[in-house]
Design brief:
The complex is a heterodimer of chains A (153) and B (149).
Chain A (H helix, E strand, L loop, with lengths): L6 H19 L5 H10 L8 H20 L10 H4 L4 H22 L3 H10 L3 H24 L5
Chain B lengths: L2 H23 L4 H8 L5 H22 L3 E2 L3 E2 L9 H17 L3 H9 L5 H19 L13
Antiparallel strand pairs in B: 1-2
Helix pairs in contact in B: 1-5, 5-6
Classes of the chains: A mainly alpha (153), B mainly alpha (149).
């Protein structure tokens, strides 16, 4: 399988995922809620079991595609961005970033899949507001960091 | 097979397809999203736009036909009106996204393709989400943190 499939194939197929989920089960696709439910398995407080299955499916699908691409190939994964930092520094930044995304997703009521893909597809005003805020903030900070670090990040 | 089991199987199948496509599109590579956010690569934006265009058209058609779902009754799309939390939470999420150059599903894809530091991002995501859930259960923030989509 190539590194990435053409956008006009993979884009429409991705767009159909939330459609199938709604059309069959009347459920809203979202990854942050799937993380939340998957975490609750540990304390046996799962309220939406199908989201745990969705999470497991994400892992299975991602692994299957990785294998078809000839992987997995183990590597750190951030050499191009944080290669100039000590490893402990990169770990700290990445953990804090994940923390901000996780809390932010719960605060906003969804993430890039729940608001950005599914919410915008169903023309939800709140999802448009949240997703456009995700994108604008991430692009602005990325460009600012790139400028501030002399194109090192 | 009970209805709840069929819903679970649907979740598993759609999740597998979604995870496969995210990996197939290349979102498991942190540099891929990094170049997207630096506006150096338009491919991810094209994928996203195509997904929303096709999904939007399909949802419009389902609503127009008053679709009755096999497992969940009459189709009811979960739309929300604009609230301040969409902006506050969105800015926090976008900040984390800029520094990690991945988001919840691509983080799974990154780890699946062997990106070890993706595990650190996923740990942070789980911690942040569980903390968010804990706060959502509190009296003060209950109205700020509805169940996530």
């Amino acid at each position: 399988m190539p590194h990435h499939l053409p956008w006009y194939i993979v884009g429409p197929l991705l767009g159909l995922c939330p459609v199938v989920l709604y059309a069959v089960a009347n459920k809203h696709l979202g990854a942050s809620a799937a993380y939340s439910q998957a975490a609750r398995v540990l304390v046996r407080r799962v309220s939406e079991p199908w989201r745990v299955y969705f999470f497991v499916g994400l892992v299975i699908g991602a692994v299957a595609a990785a294998v078809l691409k000839g992987g997995p190939q183990f590597h750190l994964g951030y050499e191009f961005i944080y290669g100039w930092m000590p490893l402990w520094g990169a770990v700290g930044v990445l953990f804090a970033s994940g923390l901000a995304m996780g809390y932010g997703a719960r605060w906003a009521g969804g993430c890039t899949s729940g608001h950005g893909l599914c919410g915008m597809s169903i023309r939800s005003a709140g999802s448009f507001a949240a997703a456009l805020t995700f994108f604008a903030t991430a692009v602005a900070i990325s460009l600012a960091l790139n400028w501030a670090t002399g194109n090192r990040t | 097979m009970s209805r709840s089991t069929r819903v679970n199987v649907t979740g598993l199948g759609v999740g597998a397809a979604f995870g496969f496509l995210i990996q197939a599109a290349g979102f498991g590579d942190a540099d891929f999203i990094h170049r997207m956010l630096l506006l150096q690569s338009w491919y991810p934006w094209e994928v996203f736009a195509a997904a929303i265009a096709v999904g939007g058209a399909a949802f419009w058609l389902l609503e127009r036909r008053r679709w009755v779902t096999p497992l969940g009754g009459q189709l009811k799309l979960n739309r929300t009106s604009i609230k301040p939390r969409h902006f506050y939470g969105g800015m926090l999420f976008g900040s984390g996204w800029a520094f990690s150059t991945t988001c919840p599903v691509p983080a799974i894809a990154m780890v699946a393709s062997g990106g070890v530091l993706g595990l650190v991002v996923k740990s942070g995501l789980f911690t942040g989400i569980m903390f968010g859930d804990r706060v959502a259960g509190g009296h003060h923030h209950a109205r700020l943190l509805p169940p996530a989509a």
